[in-house]
Amino acid sequence: MSDRTYGIVGTGALGGYYGGLLARSGCEVHFLAHSDVDHIRDNGLKVESKAGDFHLSDVSVFGTPEEMPACDVVIVALKTTQNHLLAELLPPIVKADGCVLVLQNGLDIEQEATAVVGADRTLSGCCFLCSNKVGPGHIRHLDYGRIEFGEFLGNGVSERVGDIGQDFASATISVTPSPDIRLTRWRKLVWNIPFNGLSVALDASTADIMECFDGTEMAKTLMEEVVASAAAEGYSIDESFVEKMLEDTRKMVPYDSSMRVDHKLGRPMEVEAIFGNPVRAAAAAGHDARRMEMLYRHLKFVDARNVRNLK
């Protein structure tokens, strides 16, 4: 096992799962948690997974970044709605020669990280994961788990990406190095835009959408519009990828998207990262993504109402 140290910012469905796997494999991992820091400190981290349940009884967990050791690789596993906090969270916990790996949904979501450590020390990636946080220090992994990541600045697959990828692979995390992370993000949006958006608009799980002809047709139409938007920016996604995503979703265990979970709990949704930024990118490239924009406006309305109800 390498001597790289890892910091996890956000010990939720994503950070708790991947950080837990890294720690189980023998990596030195430090977790930054919020509401359940005391529970994890006292009871450890519990992960239920289709790949095998495990429990970490001794977890290095902290409630503030000032308490936490500086790490070689800091993984940002927060929702993008919390990215404004990174200016305070990252400086104390990233080594002077360390890097930040942003594992979040959406497009154009790395700016807050690059503002702290610089674009040349920022990695970015997408997680193909079905996982939920079901209680304090309790993660339930339902399906999938692959990470595709690379240098934020692109330029092929670096040695650093390969080294971190080896640590992930040793922790049984499936990894695919990405030579062009923006293309990777557009490909992930082919799934995220229809199934995050429709799950809220229709109040439906992935299974509900795929078991209905009209739901499937709406998802497919949105997928095709994402492909066209990516093409407007010069990123080619084969049309067969749409059918693959639909077929994969048919086979997936019934799953509530992260956006639907946030909506049910009345929390802010990642509307700008997953919808607003791609809609604006498409417009800047000269493409009229009107269906995506209509869903974006719908979600903005719902999100604003949720925020008002929280007050």
From TrEMBL:
Involved pathway(s): Cofactor biosynthesis; (R)-pantothenate biosynthesis; (R)-pantoate from 3-methyl-2-oxobutanoate: step 2/2
Enzyme class per UniProt: oxidoreductase
Classification via Pfam families: ApbA, ApbA_C
Domain Ketopantoate reductase N-terminal, residue spans: 7-152
EC numbers for this chain: 1.1.1.169
Catalytic activity, reaction form: (R)-pantoate + NADP(+) = 2-dehydropantoate + NADPH + H(+)
GO biological process, one term: pantothenate biosynthetic process
Keyword list, A-Z: NADP, Oxidoreductase, Pantothenate biosynthesis
Top-level taxon of the source organism: Bacteria
Family that this chain belongs to: Belongs to the ketopantoate reductase family.
Name of the molecule in the record: 2-dehydropantoate 2-reductase
Organism for this UniProt entry: Stratiformator vulcanicus
